[in-house]
Amino acid sequence: MLFLFIFFNSIFISISILSAKSPEVPSIEQAYSKHSNSITVEFTEVSGATSYILRAESENSDFFSETMVSNSPGTVVQLQPYTDYKLSVMSVNSGGRSQPSYSVLGSTVVMAPKLNTSSPNNDTILVTWTPVEHAILYTLCIIKQGSSTRHKLNTTNTMVTFDDLEAGTTYCIKGTAWDSEGRPGDDLTVCQITRPPSPDVTHVQMTPGRSLGIAVYWAKAQGADNYEAWTTNGQNCTLTAHTYCYITPAECGQNQSVSVIAYNNAGPSSPSQPVDYITYPCLPDNIWVEEPKAGNCSVVWDEVELVEYYMAFIKRDDGTENSCNTTDTTCPFFCMCGYTYHTTVFPYNQAGSSPYANVRNYTTIPCCPEGVTINLVSTETLEIMWSPVKGAEMYETTAAQTNDVIHCNDTAPVCALSDLKCNTAYSVTVTPCSDLRGCNRTCMPHTHETAPCVPDILNMTKINNSTYRVLFTTPNSPNTNYTITATGRQSTHTCRSRNNSCELTQLPCGSTYEVMAVATTTVGRSLPGFSQPLETGPCCPMYVNVTQVTQAMTNVTWSPGTGARSYITTLTSPRGHAKCHTLDIHCLMGCITCGTNYSVVLEAISSTGHKSDCKYHGFSSSPCCPTSVKLYRRANNSLRVYWLSMGPQIHNHTVELYGTGANYTCIAAAGSRYCDIQEETCGDVYTVVAAPVGQNGIKVSFCQPRTYSVLCSGSNAGMGKYPLNCSLHILFCSG
């Protein structure tokens, strides 16, 4: 084959020489390899060349190739990885090809590692590869799809694990091998998706309809292609791309859990957290009706597992329906006589109830009368009425408190019980009877009470001027209310009690009433009891005024009291007391000294002898007038008034001197017994009044004045050594 190539090449060269001139020989500037199967050659282009031929030969001459290129650079392909080649270039035109250029030595780079990827779990990608011949280092670069963030890793191993990745996300990994000369080889990019995250089961429910199944719903997991749901009892739904599936069939009364697994090309996810579910509860094995008493029925059934509550439905044959929601295994209901009842029980839990149930029928005995009413037509007579009962031909009316004696045996739906005891509860039973079924002895009694017994007033006691306590008999049960009514000409007053006494309050003084007692219960009122008269005491005066006339005499006045004819007034103090009895509204009283506190008690008496005690506190007599009042003349032309105080010295004193030439006033503090006055003129006659000042700042007005004659200095009389104590009628005293 080489011989033929040389032969034809020689013929071509000969023809070119004859027809045209061959182009010049180009020279290679650079040869390098970026891929393991090719080498790129950069060369000088020559004029007149229309194309170029790149020649590559292996060193052991087992490979030879020529590649036609149009310009520089050119690439020789189909080479072997990490192999040395001799490279030359020839220019070509219509005159033929030039001689080959000087050859250069070029080498291909190593192959790219063949990456094998897998995702052991939803946040990890494992990359493995077989060692690349002549490679000493590997570079891996990973990037998340749709992101610009890259992560580069250099390693000498042939296995790398990328973790902390996003579940269900595609990552692209580029691998490059490096040779011992530090040249990167081919790069190879593979993409791998991580396993999907565990789905979140959002809802599990029973499928509607008569076919029992489980419907499982979950949230879509990122990167998942398909899903599969598994139950703990080994059932599963077929692989689906939806976010729900149905597991059929399902048995009643099951308590299981379900998990969902997501799948993609990387494999399955971890199972989701199991979600518990229960199926419809099974139906009770047995249902029956019990009627321990007529009209008191109960639907009873066997207990069922995994039940939260039961719904029992009772339908009467006239279309009336009843239901019961209970956690027990019994449902009481009122069952009327003469009807057939269709009973059904549905057990419920969070999954719902069975779509069907068994029906049990039950027929009752004739019912007791409905609408039984008992009215109190008089204090001791009860009238019983009821609605007729279908099928009843006779009614018996009895009362337990009369030893179940039949009071009425009649076809009419009414009966009267008379001559009964007051305030007594009677238990009345109406029993329907028929020739076919006999009497229904299960009818419930109806209780009604007769009117309360009449209370009697025992006595009435005065508590205060406006309050009277009424004592009366209590012949009735403890829950009886008693009302006491006092009726007068101008007003009516009442009080209520459950005890044997009651207080009539706010009775106006000076009034007359008729008092009567009545008992009341929930049934009604008793007959009124006998009335008793009541007269209130006379009214106290609206005000009392006390005026001190002298130190030992007081005038008491008061306003008239309604209903009062006479009065007894008493003044009481620690130093004594005084009393007067009068038909007037004033009284002059003695024996009450000055400087003391006292109280006033006024007793108003009516014409019938009823009395009202009226007490008034907070009175006090005026401070006592000073005694031993003396007038001294002093050396500095001043006058000193001296006195003695009676009682506690807690009051200020005022001293007034009235002279023919001038008047003087001075005030002495509490506890002081004298007062000094600067005299302007001598030889005057003075009237001296020394009086205490009360707590209200008012001077006592009934202290007696004294008259003194004071001589001038130098006189042999009244030198001031001894006081001139003169009486009221002595104007001048000799020295």
From TrEMBL:
PROSITE patterns: FN3
Signal peptide, first to last residue: 1-20
Domain Fibronectin type-III span(s) in chain numbering: 109-198, 454-539
Pfam families: fn3 (PF00041), Interfer-bind (PF09294)
CDD domains: FN3 (cd00063)
Domain of life (superkingdom): Eukaryota
The entry's keywords: Signal
Protein name as it appears in the record: Fibronectin type III domain containing 7a
Organism: Dicentrarchus labrax
